[in-house]
Amino acid sequence: MRQTEVCIIGGGPAGLTAALKAAGLGAEVTLIDRNDYLGGQLIKQTHRFFGSKEQRASERGINIARELAEAVEKEDKITVLTKAAALSYYKDGVVMVKQNERIIKIKPQKLIVATGGSEKNLMFPNNDLPGVYGAGAVQTLVNVYGVKPGRKVLMVGAGNIGVIVSYQLLQAGVDVVGIIEAAPKIGAYWVHASKVVRAGVPIYASHTIKRAWGEKEVAGATIMKLDEKWQPVPGTEKELDVDVICLSVGLSPLTELLWQAGCKMEFIPELGGHVPVRNEDLETSQPGIYIAGDAAGIEEASAAMMEGALAGLNAAEAMGYKVSDFKEQKEVVMKELNGLRSGPVGEKIRKGLAKAIS
Amino acid sequence: MRVNEHPILNFEKGNKVMFYYNGQQLEGFTGETIAAALHANGVRAMRESIHLHRPRGLFCNIGNCSSCLMMVNGKPNVRVCVEKLEEGMMVETQQGKGELK
Amino acid sequence: MLAQTGVPKLEDLAGVMPSEERLAQGPVAMAECFQNIPCDPCYHSCRRQAIQPFADINDRPQINHDNCNGCGICLSRCPGMAIFIIDQTYSENESLVKMPYEYLPLPLEKDSVVAVNRAGEAVGEAKVVKVQSNEKLEGTSIVWLAVPNELTMEVRHFKLKEVR
To answer: Per-residue pLDDT tens for A272-287?
Structure first.
């Protein structure tokens, strides 16, 4: 059995910053990730980030991932286990991890779950055909491996992910035929939308996908208009010649370990589904178990980094590590987080968090 | 199909390797996943659904969803979206739930 | 409408456009940022304090066009690629529009390209005057297009005529 002061599950933006902050206070940290690299989904974010200077605005996600991973690997207080999947959490506080076909048992004093999210699917006939992908899946294929998913893409969902992945497909030389959005308004930041539209990709608000076509693979799609009540308008069907359908219809928090740990969970649609109830310090109803990033509620990577910082600080402080400027450090992070969520685009998150914080 | 040039990224390919997809010899690179190598060769169907035998492809591509399970070197239920390609790998379409021998 | 199509309307643009007098004096930045989102790198990038301080990170950039000399630093830092430099003094019949560009292949100087508007429609021809691309720009090239004067406020993108 391995003993550790703070165990962090997930080496994405939230987990990496949590590790750096906890170690910064003096805690001994074990960071585990199921992949053979650190950085999580940041490693495919080629666009420049929004946010503030502290959140590294204007830098590309791929560069932020590299720098955070390097900082973590340089930190003596952090032990990194990659290719290590957390399988389960037991009543006696033991985390079971599989690494290189071997089982490792880890007994942490504090646990931070930063497992991220998974892409949602959408119901329509033939949605199981090869060629229907999550938008993030295509982003991985194109930006990590340099491989194209097909020739012509229909993007379903005009939130930030849908619009950003559309842009990145264009950059890789893949044609995007259009972006459809069931809501009457584009959910993505309008500047993202404008840059794909001027590059020749139309966005159709109040549209849905009726079905995909094809025998063995996607060979086309039918889209149609929705009325104010979100009902399909007969006669508005349009056939599109596409071989790829990308779904960017939201993410769900990956919370299996938190369920196992007996954390109090709440269904909060604004945060992407079932999420753990937490206090202001990001501690769940199970004392000593903290959350950060998309596992705590679906948000942007900038917010995940700030939540990671907060969870790392709080977990280390709860371990008994004190630094003179703890209060200031925490205030800076809180201020950053509040800034990200304070504007009109943060309304949904604010509503969700109001229900999640007890 | 591979991305030939990119304004932001440099793709560093590993060593060229041969592998087999349902007996057919294909080319790929070390460092990439089996799923990426198959896509580069135009193969997008990964497995068959258990009851209706419908072709299934990649969905999440990061090891969450199990849409891409294949037989690799005789071992069933391998998530080819996260399993890295190796020289001489035998990759096969999986039928049914996959049985451990 | 912008929220439905991603294409800003004339009234949106009117609120961010430099005055006729300022445009007549030479290069100036125009920030086509119409939504309150948490983002402020443009403000931090400006060395002339022409972009007003943000009281809240969700504020939209307010450019004091009289303090702006059109240097273009903000253009390369904007994550939304929403800032353009306009120079109406380029020549008698043509204006310069400098825009961020993150696609390959890059155009060559003196190329004639298809001028494209905010809706992605071809609206005429433009000539490539300069292509700035270096390590400091980190993948965001800046393309200087000479466009007919009447298209200065239309052209925000371009397409290569043939793929070389």
So the answer is: 999 999 999 999 999 9
- Which residues of chain C are within 8 Å of residue B7 when distances are taken between CB atoms? 102-104, 139, 141
Query: Above 80 in pLDDT, residue A117?
Result: yes
Q: Which residue of B has its CA nearest to C137?
A: B8
Q: Which residues of B touch C104 (CB under 8 A)?
A: 5-7
Do residues A188 and A160 make contact, with C-beta atoms less than 8 angstroms apart? yes
Q: Are A26 and A38 in contact (CB under 8 A)?
A: no
Structure tokens at A100: 């290189």
Please choose, from the candidates C101, C115, C110, C99, the residue with its C-alpha nearest in 3D space to the C-alpha of residue C147: C115
Tokens of B21: 């997809």
Pair of tokens at residue A222: 């039918």
- Give the whole-angstrom CA distance, residue A14 versus residue A149: 29
With CB atoms and an 8 Å threshold, state whether C4 touches A205. yes
- Angle between the A13-25 and A61-74 helix axes, to the nearest 10 degrees? 30
Q: C77 pLDDT band (50/70/90 cuts)? A: very high
The answer to the question of residue B100 being in a domain is no
CA of B10, closest CA in chain C: separation in Å? 11
Nearby residues of A32 by Cβ (< 8 Å), 6 or more positions away: A7, A8, A9, A10, A11, A80, A81, A82, A84, A86, A95, A97, A106
Domains contained in chain B, number: 1
Residue B75 structural domain: 16-92
Which chain B residues touch A if contact means CB-CB below 8 Å? 1-9, 11, 13, 32-33, 35-36, 39-40, 44-46, 49, 54-65, 81-82, 84
Which residue from B minimizes the CA distance to A119? B60
Q: Would the CB atoms of A52 and C81 count as touching at under 8 Å? A: no
Q: What is the pLDDT of residues A46-82, one digit of tens each?
A: 999 999 888 889 999 999 999 999 999 999 999 999 9
Please indicate, yes or no, if residue B43 is contained in any of the structural domains. Answer: yes
Q: What is the ipTM of this complex?
A: 0.97
* CA distances to C72, C103, C121, C142, C143 from C158, in Å: 19, 11, 9, 12, 10
Return d(Cα C127, Cα C124) in angstroms, integer. Answer: 10
Q: How far apart are CA A193 and CA C33, in angstroms?
A: 11
Distance, CA of A222 to CA of A260 (rounded, Å): 41
CATH of the domain at B72: 3.10.20.440
Q: Are C90 and C76 in contact (CB under 8 A)?
A: no
Counting Cβ atoms within 10 Å, is residue A253 exposed (0-12), middle (13-18) or buried (19+)?
Answer: buried
Strands (E), chain A: 2-9, 29-32, 78-81, 84-89, 95-99, 102-113, 117-119, 132-134, 152-156, 175-181, 203-205, 207-213, 220-225, 238-240, 244-247, 251-253, 265-268, 273-276, 289-291
CA distance A115 to A188: 24
Distance from CA of C138 to the nearest CA of B (A): 8
Contact with chain C for residue A197, Cβ under 8 A? yes
Which residue in C141, C25, C4 sits closest to A190, CA to CA? Answer: C4
d(CA A227, CA B62): 36
| Preceding omega of A149 cis (within 30 degrees of 0) | no
Comparing CA positions, the residue from A272, A134, A156, A169 lying closest to residue A203 is: A156
Q: What is the pLDDT of residues A179-238, one digit of tens each?
A: 999 999 999 999 999 999 999 999 999 999 999 999 999 999 999 999 999 999 999 999
